Amino acid sequence: GNFVPPIRNNGGSACNMTSRVTGKNDDSMGDSTRKCLEMLCGPDGEFPEKLRNLEPRLIEHVSNEIMDKDPNVRWDDIAGLEHAKKCVTEMVIWPLLRPDIFRGCRSPGRGLLLFGPPGTGKTMIGKAIAGEANATFFYISASSLTSKWIGDGEKLVRALFGVACCRQPAVIFVDEIDSLLSQRKSDGEHESSRRLKTQFLIEMEGFDSGNDQILLIGATNRPQELDEAARRRLTKRLYIPLPSTEARAWIIRNLLEKDGLFKLSEEETNAICMLTEGYSGSDMKNLVKDASMGPLREALQQGVGITKLNKEDMRPVMLKDFETALQQVRPSVSSSELGIYEEWNRQFGSLS
Ligand code: ADP
Fold it and tell me: Could you tell me if the CB of 218 is within 6 A of ligand 1?
């Protein structure tokens, strides 16, 4: 008497939702999973074909943990990298906004590689692309696929591409893509990571040949570890270098201004920029954070307790705070590493 046939039901009862996804009449699906699956149903209330036979818990994980509905980064938040921004706009944002124009000869590549030292804004660019193109952003770190999701990685990749397909236009950002698509280690390679890599390449091939509006962005600090198959699929390869002097000045000003703490003169800002040659964007952020603690530490040293301290009584952040901070925050990228990126850019980069 309790049997509910697996047929369309716009009311979406627990039993029906489960059966529509798994083909079984089993009421064990939790409320949050059911809600999440219902959100993926089309306007007709049908559960998408692509997601059938995928494990509901993996679809839920992709929707709740990997999908970022509001990436909240715009081009104006990113210092420098003008050339990369211009190329990305033409190569990926316009095609996502106007797929009708970017067909045939103009059809865009679906794979973009951002490579360069850590902390230079690669993830920010990925988020800004999604923001500027009104696309759904999916972020996954490839190392979590190979470590945390051992055994389930392949299924999670299928769920990731499946959900992205239902949320077009979509940008899938794969951080540390080298750990997924590294050069085959012949004998040493684990069977499971080989399968994971194959699945990933199959999914990429699938959307590359179709009309789906999905862009895959891979980011890496170790481009030299990518194999030929990966390079071939990531048709555009952009070098994201360390920030220029102007970009470093912009980061300092922007971060301090946000908190109303920017009182440095142009000469002082320039002096800090001269001292921070070789610092990445993320090193600069750490430096500003450390320097902005200077006025607070000084006020506390004068005996005012933290609970009694009046914010307005603190002096502004000064050059000397940066000089102290420079002793704590060192650049995280060495010049020998930079040489490797430049060489790889000359050989395989799109803008060399
Ligand atoms: P990556 O992905 O290249 O390792 P991220 O994009 O995650 O680096 O950057 C880390 C942090 O460093 C950002 O959240 C931002 O605060 C800062 N940052 C790095 N590059 C830039 C940049 N070009 N402009 C502004 N901030 C930057």
Answer: no
What's the token pair of residue 248?
């470093």
Task: Name residue 137's beta-bridge partners.
Answer: 68, 171
- Name residues whose C-beta falls within 8 Å of residue 86's C-beta, 6 or more positions apart in sequence: none
pLDDT at 186: 52
C-alpha neighbours within 13 Å on the C-beta side of residue 296: 9
The pair of three-digit structure tokens given for residue 274, joined into one six-digit string = 């001269």
Answer whether 119 contacts ligand 1 (Cβ < 6 A).
yes
Block residue for tokens 């091939």: 205
Helix (H, G, I), strand (E, B), or coil: what is residue 185?
Answer: coil
pLDDT 10s digits, 47-99 = 787 787 788 888 888 888 788 877 788 899 999 999 899 988 988 889 888 88
Provide the token pair at 186: 């012949």
pLDDT value at 176 more than 80: yes
Residue 343 CA to residue 176 CA, distance in Å, equals 19
Check: CB of residue 144 under 8 Å from CB of residue 250.
Answer: no
The atom number, within ligand 1, closest to the CA of 117 reads: 3
Give the pairing of strands 111-115 and 214-220: parallel
